[in-house]
Design goal:
Helix content is 25%, strand content 33%. It is of the alpha+beta class and 340 residues long. The protein is globular.
Amino acid sequence: MASVKLESVNKYYDSGSHAVIDFNLQIEEHEFIVLVGPSGCGKSTTLRMIAGLENISSGSVFIGERCVNDLPPKDRDIAMVFQNYALYPHMSVFENLAFGLKLRGLAKVDIKERVNDAARILGLGSLLDRLPKQLSGGQRQRVALGRAIVRKPSVFLFDEPLSNLDAKMRVEMRSEINRLHNRLNATMIYVTHDQTEAMTLGDRIVVMNEGRIQQVADPLTLYNVPANIFAAGFIGTPPMNLLPGDLFGDGSLIAGFRPEDITVADGCAQTTLSGVVDFVEPMGSETYLHLKVHDLPVVVRVAPDKIVNSGDNVKIAVDLQKCSFFNKSTGIRQSSSLHN
């Protein structure tokens, strides 16, 4: 496995758009890094520059100690898994797994050994004679993973590989990829727009927006200590509530607090706000109350046995010790307390 480093990487298109702006990141050997952000934020373009599928406008990409800016994809010792599987429909599973190895001139005995090893890791042993059309979506994605595994690359690259799967299959495949990383101890770079995938898979997460890195952190730090308003609002389901600081005594700040850090007040001495229940969203193990507070949306997580109805007037208690505060002008995190 190898480390990956991006130094001041930029991507311009002929149209004049600046898709990736001064991207700097050190990815350690064996690390699982997730690039996450909304559509058009530059995450897939960044991955494709690492892979050599997009030219770098300026800056440098290193895989291990080598600068790979001018190397074609086949010479970068990477393997890429795409969202559309990219399987050959006329080839069996075995042939799909073996195809790249044949092109590289490996001996038949070595090809068979590598294919069988990958099939065993991914539970594909009984499917090796089938064609892709005879497989489920999850099985096809396993074949795509297997095709990457057999190459034994220095770096695995994933471009939204689970986007075409249903919700249940995405959960199963997230577990599969997690186990794969632990088993191979591989360097993996994974692109997704799904922040749940990012939080459950990444050792560190790179949050991007409009071509720029917004924050790089482990999942818990990203969730609890967002660096700016964008990261606060993007990460979390539901995302962090954001309200003007003048509701809490400081008009120069924006206050952010998670739905689970608010309670429906029952004579509580904490800072309280009044709101009206817009609608109630039962989720089974928990319920989300969608409120309007000073005509602004606020989401509160409560126990499923808490009886609240649309149209009810409620008071909510906010623990300021669990709040994040952001500069109203810049959006950058200021502190975790009004008094710091």
